[in-house]
Amino acid sequence: MSKDxxxxxxxxxxPKILDKIVEASVPESFNYDFLGTKLGFKxxxxxxxxxxxxxxxFLTPDGTPTSIYKxxxxxxxxxxxxxxxxxxxxxxxxxxxxxxxxxxxxxxKQLVCEITGKPHDNSTVSAIITTYKNAKVYADFETKSLPxxxxxxxxxxQSIPTSVNESTGKTHHANLKLGLNYTINxxxxxxxxxxxxxxxxxxxxxxxxxx
Length: 211
What we know:
alpha+beta; two-stranded antiparallel ribbon; globular
């Protein structure tokens, strides 16, 4: 049974749109108006980017930018984000060959033809392959997860406050507490995804702030 694979009718425009996405702010909704007015791509064939982006999980079905979209804008997570997008959008490719991104042009075309049921000289096959290869330029398939952010302790001071707790009766207990004060500089990524910040501060709490 043949299956469809995502593609842009004007596949050569894909890198230009992706580069503009990196430069522009994240919209509440990525629609044709945003693509044409804010990014400057008003052509009918260029509009096919929206359907491609939805199939690759850059956008939700209603056009809302996803975490993949937001992570793609961050140079530190761009490669991993695009690799995730391609594995989602071209799932059938990776079902048949988990290293589809390493295939030669000849083998990739053969696989696309098998999946779509279209002949090798079909224009859709060519558009699928060109779109995939143009997006793959941004992808990092070697890194398995988003880069961990560094936490740098730049200054440490020590103070020793003393507290004495007296109980009623004849017994007196003196408890000495040792306190450490840290000045911590967080090197944070440029991202609109709150989940990344949650992970950073959770790690900070678990590893540095536990008593």
